[in-house]
Amino acid sequence: MWRYIFQRLLLLVPTLLGILAVTFAVIQFVPGGPVEQMVQQLTQTGAGGETAAAGGMLKSGGRLSAEDMAALNALYGFDKPPLTRFIEMVGRFVRFDLGESFFHHQTVFELVKEKMPVSMSLGLWTFFLTYFICIPLGIAKAVRDGSRFDVVSGAVVLVGYTVPPFVLGLVLLVFFGGGSFFAWFPQGGLVGDDWETLGTAAKIKDYLWHMALPVTASVAGNLAVMTVLTKNVFLEEIRRQYVYTARAKGLPERQILWKHVFRNAMIPLVTGFPAAFIGAFFTGSLLIETLFSLDGLGLLSYEAVMKRDYPVVMGTLYVFTLMGLLAKLLSDISYSWVDPRIHFGGQK
Fold first, then answer.
1. Which residues face 58 on adjacent strands?
2. Residue 345: how many CB atoms within 10 A of its CB?
3. Which of 76, 41, 91, 53 minimizes the C-alpha distance to 311?
4. Residue 88: is its pLDDT beyond 60?
5. What processes in GO biological process is this protein linked to (predicted)?
6. What was the pLDDT predicted at 42?
């Protein structure tokens, strides 16, 4: 096992470098980079007869000189060859120095730290509620396969799956967020404006009240996949020969389900926990965050791509990719933890 873990950690390095290299190479050819955007901004400012400053460089009139362009390229680090910039970037990433944003005037680490609570709240609530609802519901549907409960619950879950989370969120806002019907929930934000003045119990209530609608919209889209997966896995185990043998021996149905079927059926579900947990922790939903005015990582990533804020793009990519690769390793290791019969590297 330890040999396998060591090999996977060694493989993680070239994988991570390959992802960074491909992304870095692609963004070199994307038009409208930060230099072009600054040139456009300075030109528009100069068209109004004003003088603009960028990094100590003054610009007057309607055109930039060659010296000004060289200063702009040096300001954003584009005065060096791409390979040199890539090597320097990787060297900083090894020290977990993610660089500084071109437009936010903050380090990438500070930006991620600032936006993280929003995405954590949305992602973790979605993760836990999805699993806490889907696993019991999937088990109940498997045990009652073909019954009226199975048909009705399947129809409800399917409706929730077919409606996009953004559309469902919009409907929830219209009906319950002070739209045309009821004003039971706030329209957006992580907490209220008076949150700092509230007591502990009131803060918790205010936070949960603000998260109710966006979490509901996020969870609804995830229910169908996990519920159907849980049902199918349990149905497959229930129809195995060892279940018929246990019934023939006179074991109670409850004991068969929870002592034998449950353990075997949970293997493919539990092994997906690490990746799903990390994904929910770090991945924000752009549409949900925009709809409910949640300034999280999803919105940050979108703005970074649109503004060509390369340090934010590459820094967040590095962190998320590293965590994703580690989560995949944990998923593989969890197979052996859940089922001791599984070994890696040919070990017995």
1. 53
2. 11
3. 76
4. yes
5. microcin transport; transmembrane transport
6. 65
Domains and their CATH numbers in the chain: 34-95 (no CATH), 108-338 (1.10.3720.10)
57-77 pLDDT tens trace: 444 445 666 776 777 777 777
Q: What radius of gyration do the chain's Cα atoms show?
A: 26
Output the average pLDDT for the chain: 77
d(CA 267, CA 227): 15
Q: How far apart are CA 331 and CA 276, in angstroms?
A: 10
Q: Answer whether residue 97 shows pLDDT above 80.
A: yes
Angle between helices 34-47 and 66-75 (to 10 degrees): 130
At 58 the three-state DSSP class reads strand
Q: Which helix (H) or strand (E) holds 30?
A: none
> Any idea which residue has 């998260």 for tokens?
211
Which DSSP helix (H) or strand (E) runs through 177? none
- Enumerate the β-bridge partners of residue 52: 59
List residues bridging with 107 in a β-sheet.
Answer: 100
131: Cβ contacts below 8 Å, ≥ 6 apart: 226, 273, 276
pLDDT of 348 over the 50 cut: no
Provide the pLDDT confidence category of residue 53 given band limits of 50, 70 and 90. Answer: very low
Q: 62 and 43 in contact (C-beta within 8 Å)?
A: yes
| Cα gap 322→315, rounded to integer Å | 11
Q: Residue 260 has what DSSP assignment?
A: I
Measured CA to CA, the distance from residue 216 to residue 291 in angstroms comes to 13
Taking the C-alpha atoms of 214, 325, 262 and 126 in order, what is their torsion angle to the nearest 10 degrees? 0
pLDDT digits (tens, 9 = 90+) for 223-258: 777 888 888 888 888 888 888 888 888 888 888 888
324 torsion bin: left (phi>0), alpha (psi -120 to 50), beta (else): alpha
